[in-house]
Amino acid sequence: MDNQETEGSAQAVALAFLGGAVAGVLVGLLLAPKAGEQTRRDLKGYARRAEEEFLERAKEARAALDQTIESGKQFMAEKAAVVEAAVKAGREAMKEKNG
Q1: 3-class secondary structure for the chain?
Q2: Which of 34, 47, 60, 74 could form a disulfide with 38 if both were Cys (CB 3.0 to 4.6 A apart)?
């Protein structure tokens, strides 16, 4: 369930970011009438900044994902050790009982 919530949250953040970027560009175009060349330059600047921001967020999301995966691996290793110890103790108890 946590994984689904995290995945949904990441998707919501990405969608909100993209929606905000699009809305910002549209508002900028509507409220600041400029010459076509200036508008194109501005749009390229907005797109470049949005791309940089998106890439930065993607790096952060990747780092968080890598950390979550590493934590999951560590958790599984710890639980495997506990199960292994319990199985070993059970086998020894059976040997003592039968032996």
Answers
A1: CHHHHHHHHHHHHHHHHHHHHHHHHHHHHHHCCCCHHHHHHHHHHHHHHHHHHHHHHHHHHHHHHHHHHHHHHHHHHHHHHHHHHHHHHHHHHHHHHHC
A2: 34
